[in-house]
Design a protein that fits this description.
The complex is a heterodimer.
Chain A: H1 2-28, H2 38-41, E1 52-53, H3 55-58, H4 65-77, E2 86-94, E3 100-109, H5 119-130, E4 145-155, E5 158-162
Parallel strand pairs in A: 1-4
Antiparallel strand pairs in A: 2-3, 2-4, 4-5
Chain B: H1 2-20, H2 23-32, H3 37-49, H4 54-66, H5 70-83, H6 85-98, H7 103-116, H8 129-139, H9 143-161, H10 164-176, H11 180-193, H12 198-210, H13 214-226, H14 245-253
Helix pairs in contact in B: 2-3, 3-4, 4-5, 5-6, 6-7, 7-8, 8-9, 9-10, 10-11, 10-12, 11-12, 12-13, 13-14
Classes of the chains: A alpha+beta, B mainly alpha.
Chain lengths: ~160, ~260
């Protein structure tokens, strides 16, 4: 009898622990979270790894908006050649100091299927975005980190638009 | 024994909630927790239990698209469209227009939606379909067609319901087609509807400046500046005709 009770206790404990742990894990993970990769991200730091907001939660933006981004970097990227029409979508973090890092990219064709993009071109896109120096100042940004999304629209093998 | 029973009860309640509580309740919780993996798992369970329910696929897609994961987002949205095209085609077109700037793709969805709902003016995501078509042609720089759809939107919506930006866009189209006089008429109509229409003031200031009518140009540039906080913007994306402080500053510099 005692053995059975112990088994019951043990099983219920394990099951409830596993469930709680699973729920805890699920509620902490979010669509679009970017995990750290020191090799790729260098010394880029966020202020609070557990509290990175989405751009639309904080109105994270560049001074002068997307238009200013386009004006500052499109001309540097217009010479790049691509193979397919579609979108290159960069997702990255604007940290609490207004610095950008942890860049990750997804590329899709016009049917929204994933495509491969020449890594040299991706590098050039990244260096162009790193030139942008006027992200929401820390005061405006209320000292939080947030994710940002920037799309590079490819048509006729060239970057046509950034938004 | 008591502890074990309580722990078991706890587990049973969680499992009951995840698998057997009313689907609508779980759907609402999943929607409220948008973006969390818990929400995504709830959607997966709901889809498994009710694979024909288009709303689940639609709602699940939202977090992916807002966060730039369009492949996954549109996979889900496409499933929603396949299950119930009348309800989701308009939204998919809207997303292609505003989130992807895929103007041709957006137009395809709007046209297909129209064919499914004859004699009915659809309103994808609450915006008039003709306005959205106008915006798509505007994006394609086909200003003639764009203007025609903005006019159609103005006509079918009537002055009470029309989006003021339909006048603004129609004005920009006229301007782009070298018809500044016609553009002025549209911009004025926008301002008649609301004096806070920054985009129309800026458009007018620019045309008056080109006509060397500095007095009117200054009036409208000042109004654009004064009402700047009323400009049309959106937390997710930049509008195609979005105006910025710098546009007004640059225009004002040209007065000197």
């Amino acid at each position: 009898m005692k053995n059975k009770t112990n088994l019951f206790l043990f099983t219920s404990l394990v099951v409830s622990f596993m469930l709680t742990g699973w729920l805890f894990y699920l509620s902490g993970k979010r669509v679009g979270d970017l995990s750290v990769n020191e090799q790729q991200d260098g010394d880029f730091q966020v202020c609070n790894e557990d509290r990175i907001f989405q751009y639309y939660n904080l109105d994270t933006d560049y001074k002068g908006g997307k238009k200013a981004i386009k004006q500052e970097i499109l001309s540097r990227l217009e010479s790049l050649d691509f193979n397919n029409p579609g979108l290159i979508t960069a997702r990255f973090i604007v940290n609490c100091n207004g610095d950008t890092g942890r860049f990750r990219y997804k590329s899709t064709d016009l049917d929204l299927k994933e495509i491969k993009v020449n890594s040299e071109n991706i590098k050039k896109i990244k260096s162009a975005v790193l030139l942008l120096q006027h992200w929401n100042s820390p005061e405006e940004n209320r000292v939080f980190d947030s994710y940002y999304v920037l799309n590079f629209k490819i048509r006729n093998n060239k970057i046509l638009d950034i938004f | 024994m008591v502890v074990a029973s309580l722990l078991t009860l706890y587990s049973v309640i969680i499992i009951y909630f995840l698998l057997f509580s009313p689907a609508e309740k779980r759907y609402n919780i999943a929607a409220d927790l948008q973006g969390s993996f818990l929400s995504q798992n709830l959607f997966e369970i709901l889809k498994f239990q009710d694979p024909e329910n288009d709303e689940i696929y639609f709602e699940q897609s939202v977090a992916f698209n807002k966060r730039g994961e369009y492949k996954k987002g549109f996979e889900l949205l496409d499933q929603a469209v396949d299950l119930n095209p009348k309800v989701h085609l308009g939204y998919r077109g809207y997303m292609k227009l505003r989130f992807l700037r895929d103007f041709k793709g957006a137009l395809k969805d709007f046209t297909r939606l129209d064919s499914l709902t004859p004699n009915f003016v659809d309103a994808p995501w609450g915006e008039d379909i003709n306005f959205l078509r106008g915006e798509s042609y505007f994006g394609l720089k086909d200003y003639k067609k764009a203007k025609a759809y903005f006019e159609k939107s103005i006509e079918t919506q009537g002055t009470d319901w029309v989006d003021i930006q339909a006048y603004v866009y129609a004005g920009i189209c006229e301007y782009k087609m070298n018809k500044p006089a016609e553009a002025i008429v549209f911009y004025q109509k926008a301002i008649e509807q609301s004096k806070y229409t920054v985009e129309a003031h800026l458009g007018l200031a620019n045309i008056y400046l080109e006509k060397k009518d500095i007095k009117n140009a200054e009036i409208h540039a000042d109004l654009a500046q004064k009402y700047y906080s009323y400009k049309r913007n959106d937390g997710y994306n930049e509008y195609l005709n979005e105006v910025y402080k710098k546009d007004i500053e640059l225009l004002k510099k040209r007065f000197k």
